Amino acid sequence: MILKLRQIFLAALFCVIAIAAADAQTLKSIQARGHILCGVSQGLPGFSQDDGKGNWSGFDVDFCRALSAAIFNDPSKVQFVPLNAAERFDALKDKKIDILSRNSTWTISREADYGIVFAGITYYDGQGFMVRKSRNVMTSMDLQNVKICVQTGTTTEINITDYFNQNGMRFEIVKFPEVTSLLKGYDAGNCDVLTADVSQLYALKLETTKPGEHTILADIISKEPLGPAVRAGDEQWLGIVKWTHFALLNAEELGVGAKNIDDALKSEKPDIKRLTGRDGDYGEKLGLSRDWVVRVVRHTGNYGEVFERNIGVKSRVGIPRGLNHLWSAGGIQYAPPIR
Fold it and tell me: β-strands 36-41, 78-83: how paired?
């Protein structure tokens, strides 16, 4: 009996060890490869865009650079993989990328169907409408008997169908497979309205032939929590991605940014000492260095700096921060403390 119990115990122990080993493969693979494989959109101003020479920039791009800084102390150790909406989750599931950082909405079906996990909400968004000013439309309730441009493989098609049916409004959906064809279809007049996440509408408006002739309505018809996703089953990698986002928020809340990171390293405030790794081994518990947050902030800035640089009101995209302000500044961005 004792021998049998011992065999059962050893079998269980080996199983736990095997699972733990399997759960820590992503970071090891990234370190061995020498760079992160980051899935991004094929081109969305302010979020992820290639300048034609292989130089990527944007809000979603900078998140992967922050991860690279945390791991390698070098934000350039990232290979960006452009993906359309239909292929993005399969690419993650099939291990073609390590992380999806591509204006993607967190939903239960996406996690369940693809075996993925969203690591946090980096951008609180909602679905809206862009129309030509010449239509003299004031609200979405004025959009009766219209053709609506929608990108397939997104949550917008379901949302728009629910919204118009619930309000007894007639409409016709015109589907496009990619953002580029979606914009071209709308710009060419193949439809009266373009619907997408409001952040995307701000970006797409810039790409129209005559941006000044279009307006984004104030109406928001859905919740679209956007954030990075990873494969389920690797708790270590999920933790690194999740806490990198939290670190960016905590750094902003504590007033620690790229310009004053060296001053922060001299601070005696307990929260800042923990943030910078001078008190506690929080980074090492994730499989990183003690100063991992210092690396991130030094190379990419805090959350607010990343936001304003890429999509804020002074950027080309010009999106008001709104809900994405910190909780202490009237928004709902909120991070658990590092302690």
Answer: parallel
- Does pLDDT of 326 surpass 80? yes
> Burial code of 104-129, b = ≥16 C-beta within 10 A, e = fewer?
bbbeeebeeebebbbbbbbbbbbbbb
The single residue listed with the structure tokens 């750094």 is: 251
Handedness of CA 75, 76, 77, 80 (dihedral sign): positive
- Could you tell me the pTM of the whole model? 0.89
Dihedral, 48, 198, 124, 84 alpha carbons, nearest 10: -40
pLDDT at 15: 39
d(CA 93, CA 197): 24
In whole angstroms, what is the distance from residue 11 CA to residue 15 CA? 6
Q: Residues 219-237: pLDDT tens digits?
A: 999 999 999 999 999 999 9
The distance from CA 20 to its chain's CA centroid, rounded to whole angstroms, is 27
* CA pseudo-torsion sign 156, 117, 180, 300: positive
